[in-house]
Specification:
There is one protein chain. With 405 residues, this protein is α/β, with parallel strands linked by helices. The protein is built from 16 helices and 15 strands.
């Protein structure tokens, strides 16, 4: 039951709704549900509040539309934003008090034709755990990633859509390096924004308003004698060139990059103007990540895949496989899923792959070559999780594009 809805229906709220209390109840509802984001969006007849649970939006409550401006004003005050500014996007953050379990909030305000949409990202300190072994990676992927992190130099790239777990994975990788090397390792980051403060790591946040950009930060950072450099995201040619050069000159560089596929990272960097021979020499590994929801352990039961999924499965898999699905219960809020884990695709370039990169081989050919050299695809690793009852075939298909199946 929603505490926010209970409050609105209470006698004291009938006379006057206290925005501070209502916001607190909405945040508590989100925390108790294990949500990562709260969406408040004015629709035609109501202000809908939705929670992102395990990566999927779910409606929590519909509030009277006349509360939209007041709630937006309350969130702006919390994040020290300009309360009277309604026509431009604004972003800010704040730390909630002990009554809200000390969660940190990143608040984004965006103007729409019906009013301001508010999205609140929740960072719960109680759930902060950057344990590489606890990410749920496949054993083979985990062992190869640990080997990459032991290298003295090279470029390690993580790719995947927004919300795929790249930030958690990269923070866990840095924590692993800290635990392994202690104070003997100099580790520095450039991020946008810094989402968590890591012990024994020098973290900086870009500030374009003051011309403190990724390239400027990285050029200065190279004079700080770092051994491991984390770049929040490679998004422009200059940042990419510095990252590649750093990986070639004795630094271990870890970063993220948006690409349609793991093998497509090479084409993305070439399109940024980087020379293929530099990429072939610098890239130590590329890790593709997708998050899929886990079957709820309380209501999971045997099931049959739907007709569309059956067409994608080999006959041997259909004959031998056992499929499970959550029926929906109070524990999983009727969704059939509880929690998430990562399915991965680890590309480790060998000499043949590097030669293909230098020859500007098309992405689909690089992908086939990587599979020939032993790469397990997202689909293969996802299907393995389906056959062990951890998730559904439909959930894997939701996370993995059909052209990668």
């Amino acid at each position: 039951m929603s505490q926010a809805l209970d409050y609105l229906n209470s006698p004291e709220a009938q006379a006057r709704v206290e925005m501070g209390l209502l916001v607190n109840y909405l945040i508590l509802d989100a925390i108790n549900a294990g949500a990562s984001d709260i969406h408040l969006e004015p629709w035609q007849d109501s202000l809908v509040v939705r929670l992102r649970l395990n990566g999927v939006l779910s409606e929590l409550v519909h509030l009277p539309l006349e509360l939209a401006d007041k709630l937006a004003g309350r969130f702006k005050v919390m994040a020290s934003l300009v309360t009277y500014q309604t026509g431009l996007p604004q972003e800010g953050h704040c730390s909630a008090g002990p009554e809200l379990n000390g969660v940190e909030l990143r608040i984004s305000v965006f103007p729409t034709t019906r009013g301001e949409k508010i999205v609140v990202r929740l960072f719960d300190p109680r759930s902060r755990s950057f344990d590489l072994a606890g990410l749920g990676f496949e054993h083979e992927t985990l062992s190869r990633l640990v080997q990459l992190l032991a290298r003295p130099s090279g470029l390690i790239l993580l790719t995947g859509p927004t919300g795929a777990g790249k930030t958690t994975a990269i923070y866990s990788a840095l924590s692993h390096v800290v635990q392994r090397s202690g104070s003997s390792m100099s580790i520095a980051t450039v991020e946008d924004p810094v989402e968590y403060n890591l012990p024994m790591v020098s973290q900086s946040q870009v500030n374009p308003a003051q011309e403190f950009t990724y390239p400027r930060a990285l050029r200065s950072l190279m004079r700080q004698d770092p051994q491991v450099i984390m770049i929040g995201e490679i998004r422009d040619p200059e940042t990419a060139a510095i990252a590649v050069q750093a990986g070639l000159t004795g630094h271990l560089v870890i970063s993220t990059i948006h690409s349609g596929s793991t093998s497509g990272v090479v084409a993305r960097l070439i399109n940024m103007g980087l020379e293929p021979f530099l990429l072939a020499s610098s890239i130590a590994g590329v890790l593709g990540i997708r998050l899929v929801r886990k079957n709820c352990p309380s209501c999971s039961q045997p099931c049959a895949p739907d007709a569309n999924s059956i067409r994608l499965l080999p006959e041997a898999v259909l004959a031998a496989g056992k499929f499970f699905r959550g029926a929906g219960c109070d524990h999983c809020l009727g969704t059939g899923y509880s929690g998430r884990f990562a399915i991965t695709e680890m590309l480790l370039p060998d000499e043949n792959f590097r030669e293909a990169v230098m020859n500007k081989t098309p992405t689909h050919t690089l992908h086939d070559l990587a599979i020939e050299r032993g790469m397990k695809t997202l689909w293969q690793n996802g299907l393995r999780r389906v056959l062990t009852g951890q998730t559904t075939i439909e959930e894997v298909l939701r996370a993995v594009a059909l052209d990668q199946v």
